[in-house]
């Protein structure tokens, strides 16, 4: 099992927030086949997906301070794999706590 109960508890509010049509099983399958990437630590988890030269953070949950820190790991991953941008699809409040992102419609984008 790729997504433990603890990880799912962290991610579920983000998945459920917009009544997304993705399940735990969908996420596990996507992680296993490389469609999605999982970044985690003890108190937060993030799911990313690739869109051309952009790495998109689509699902995230857990402790806010830890999420801000884990974004640094996501950025290092993106730079190493030569992405041009990181995007965050989420609530507008993220733009208040993450540096370098600008609001573009409902997507926050950071050039790297």
What does this structure look like?
There is one protein chain. This protein is an alpha+beta fold. The protein has a single domain, classed as 3-Layer(aba) Sandwich (Aminopeptidase). 39% of the residues lie in helices and 32% in strands. The chain contains 4 helices and 6 strands. It has helices spanning 5-17, 24-33, 64-80, 94-97; strands spanning 36-41, 44-51, 54-62, 85-89, 102-104, 107-111. The chain has a 6-stranded mixed beta sheet with strand order 1-2-3-4-6-5. β3, α3 and β4 (85-89) form a beta-alpha-beta unit. The longest helix is centred in the middle third of the chain and has 17 residues, at 64-80. The chain is globular and about 35 Å long. The termini are far apart. The model has no long low-confidence stretch (mean pLDDT 87).
